[in-house]
Design goal:
With about 950 residues, the chain is α/β, with parallel strands linked by helices. The chain is built from 35 helices and 20 strands. The protein is about 40% helix and about 10% strand. Helix 28 links the parallel strand 13 and strand 14. Its EC number is 1.2.4.1.
Length: about 950
Amino acid sequence: MTEDVTPTDTQRSGTTPTVIHEGLPTQLPDIDPDETRDWLDSFDSMVDERGRERARYVMLRLLERAREMQVGVPALRSTDYINTIPPEREPWFPGDEETERRIRAFIRWNAAVMVSSANRKGLEVGGHIATYQSSASLYEVGFNHFFRGHDHPGGGDQIYIQGHASPGIYSRAFLEGRLTEEQLYRFRQEVQHGAHAGLSSYPHPRLMPDFWEFPTVSMGLTGLNSIYQARFNRYLHNRGIKDTSDQRVWAFLGDGEMGEPESLGAIRTAAREELDNLVWVVNCNLQQLDGPVTGNGKIIQELEANFRGAGWNVIKVVWGREWDQLLARDVDGVLVNRMNNTPDGAFQTYSVETGEYIRDSFFGSDPRLRRMVEHMTDDQIRKLPRGGHDYRKVYAAFDAATKHVGQPTVILAKTVKGWTIDALEGKNATHQMKKLTQDDLKKFRDRLYMPISDRDLERSYEETGSAPFFHPGADSPEIEYMLERRKALGGSLPKREVRAKALTLPGDAMYAELKQGGGKHKIATTMAVVRLLKDWMKDPEIGKRIVPIAPDEYRTFGMDSMFPSAKVYNPAGQQYESVDRKLLLSYKESPQGQMLHEGISEAGALASATAAGSAYSTHGEHMIPFYIFYSMFGFQRTGDSIWAMADQLARGFLVGATAGRTTLTGEGLQHADGHSPLLAATNPAVVHYDPAFAYEISHIMKSGLERMYGEGGFDGTGENVIFYLTVYNEPVAQPAEPEGVDVEGILKGIHHVKAGEGEGPRVQLLASGVGFPWVEEAQRLLREEWGVSADTWSVTSWNELARDGAAAEEWNLLHPGESPRTPYVADKLQAVEGPVVAVSDYMRAVPLQIARWVPGDYRVLGADGFGFADTRPAARRFFHIDAQSVVVQALQALADAGQIGRDKVEEAFNRYRIDDPTAVADVKQEGGDA
C-alpha cells in the first residue's frame, strides 16, 4: 500500500536515522555510497516525474525479480487486491467448460432442493443452502481436474470438505449414482427410515462410514487437522512405511472460520516443515453466520498478510475474467487503488445492489473510473463476477498450487454467499434461511437454465411438499463426462475404505515382565506403561507401527531413553550439535525418527494422533498412536478434537499421565485432574481405565491392541474405539500378578484383590488407580485398630461399569418378555457382606456413576473442588480421601447399620483428625513430582 506522505529532503539526504522496515538490512555499512546515491536519486526522480503509483509498480517488479534471482529480501505481507495470477500467465483450461457449467447447475439445484425439502412442513430439520452455492466452482474444479481418488496410482488425495457444503457433495454423489433420490429426500433423517436410509447433516464418518473420511463441521479443526494430516503423510514416507510423495491434502474452509484460533494456530508448522503437499482453499464470501466477517476491513488482505508472514505461498482469486479488460486499461492504477481501498462491507452491498448503484458508488468517485465503464450497461456492471465463481481463474490457482514447491499454499477465493439464488445472494440472514418458496425456486431454475417446467415443479410441491430433484439420465453427456473425469482421477470422492492388512499381535510373553511386579521397588504406573511401550516398539511386527506422541514432555514421562534409538521425527534432520550431546540419553532428531515431539501444543499432538489413528483407512496402513500427556490437559483442553478423532473412526492409545487431583504435588489448581474420567465418559468411543497395578496395565493394553488392531468389530477389522488410560507419577508398591487373577474383572472394570481377615464386622473397600494404597492401608487399620474385616477391590474402570449397567437396563427395557440382565458390578458385589465404601483421586461423581447398581449401602469419597499445591498427605487429608478418612467412613457406615457403636466413629475421628491437614504436616512423601 502507498503512504500518504512524501519523503522530506532531510530524509532523502540520509541525515536522519533510517527506519528499519520488515527486516531490511539498513543498519549495515554502505560500501559504495555513490552507487547508492544514484539509485536513490533515480527513484526520487521517478516519484516526482511519474507519480507514486508508477514508482510503486516499479518497486514491486524489482522485488519480484529479486525473489526470482534468490536475492534475500523479505516478501511483501500483502499485495494489491487483484488476482495473483495475471491473465497472460493462466494455463490452458483442459476441460469442456460448457459441460462442466451444466453439471454445476444440476448440482446447485439438487443441493438447494435437498435443504429446502428437509424443511418442508412437518419435518423442518434445518440445513444450509448458501455455503455450497458460493463454493460450487471451487469444488467442481477440484472434482473434475485435481482431486485424486483412492484408486489413483499415487495413492489418492485427502479432501477436507467444509461442513456446511455437504448438500452439494451429496448432490454430486447422486448424479454419479452413489446415492438415491430417496436418500436425498431423507437428508438429516438418519434413523426414522431405517439404518443408512438417510443422510447425515455434515461430514460424519462414524455416521456414514463408507462415504465421509474427515469430520469438518467443528469449526477450526479442519485447518489444524489438515496440517497434521499432511505432516503425517510425510512422516509415513520418510519412515519408509508408505510412499506418499504423490498424495495431496486439500482443505476447504470459510473466511469466517478463520476467526477460530485453531484455524490459524498451526500454520507456521506447515511452513516450517515445507508441506507443499497441502493446499487450503478459503472461500472468502465475506460473510460469517450472521453478518460480515470484517465489514470495515478486507479479510482477503488480512489473511494474505497472516499466511505470507507465516511462510505460505498465497494465491488470490479475487476477480473474474470480465474484469481483465478493465484492469488492462488501468494505466494510472486508479482502479486497483479503488479496489484496495473499498471495504468488504461495501463489496457485500454491491453484491445485492443494481448496476446503477455500483456505477455511482464504486466507479463514480473518479472521472477516470467512470470513463473506464462508460461503454458498459448497468446490467453488465452488476454481473461483473468475483474470481471464485470463474472456472478458469480457479483452475489457474489450483494448477499453480499443485506445482508449487517448498511451501504450503493457501488459495483465497472471493465469492458471493448464496450465489445464483436471488433470495439468498449476499444477505446477512443466509445462515437462517432454510427454505425456498416456489417463486424463489422458479427464479433459481431460470437462472440455472434447468429443464423443469412450472407444471412439474408445482406438481412436485403438491405431492411431496418440495421441488423435484433433477437427474439428466445415466447416458447423458454430462453424467458420462463426470464419470470419465472421476475414473481418470482414481475414482469417486469422498469415499472411505478400509484396506489395511491384519497385524500379528505380540503374545503373552510380551507381558510377562510387567506381571512380575516391582519386587521391593515402588514404581509409578506411568513408568509401567512406558516400559511396556518400549517392549512393543521392539516387536518385529507392530514395533515400527507405534507412533509415540508427546507435547514437549517426553522426559517428564521417562521416555528420554527412547531418544538415541527411536529418535525424534524431523524432516530436516538435526542440523546442530545438541547441548546434551555428551549424555547417554541426548536429544536426537532424524528424518526417519519415530517419535513425534509436538512442542507445547496439545492440540497439535491430538491432531497427529488422529492422523495416525485413522491411517488404516486413509492409507491402508495400521499405525498405533500412543499419545501421552498431562491428564488435565487432555479432555478438558482438547475434548472437541478427541470428539472429532472418534468421529473419524480413529484408534489408538491416549495416556493421561500425572493423573489425579492430589498426585501432582506442587503444581496447583490448573494441573490437578479430578474429573477427566467424567469428560471421557461423554465420548462413546473412549474406553477409559484407571489401573492401580502393572499387571492390570498389561491386560488392559493387550486388550486394547486386540480390540483395535485385531479381528474384532462388526467386520473383523478391529473396533473403532480409543483407549484412554489414566496413570500416575507417584511410585507405589507393584505386586506380582496373583495366581488365577480375574482377567475378565480387570477388563470389565472391577476385580477382588484381597479378602479381609478376622471375624468382626465386614466392609467392602473399592478404589481405583493411585487410590488403592489408601484402601490397602485402611484395610490394615480397620483390622488392627478397630476389629473390622475389610475386603479390597480394584476398580479399573468406573466408566465401563457404568456403561455396562446402563446397557443392561436398556436391554431389559427393550426385552420385557425375557429374563432381565444384571449389571456386572451388581453381580460382583451381590454376595458380599457389609457396606461398600468407594474412594478415588477424582471427584465423587466418578465413583457415583455406579451407585444405582451397587447392592446395599454405598458410600463415596472423592476430591471435590479445586486442586492446590501441597504435599500428597496434606491434600488427601484436606479432601478426606486418605486411608484414615476411609476408615472413619467405613466405621460410620457400620454404625449406621447398627453393627458398632457411634462412639467408635467419634473416637476414630478424633484420633485421626481427618478434618485437619495440619495433622499430617510432618508426613514425608516419596518422589514422582512433575
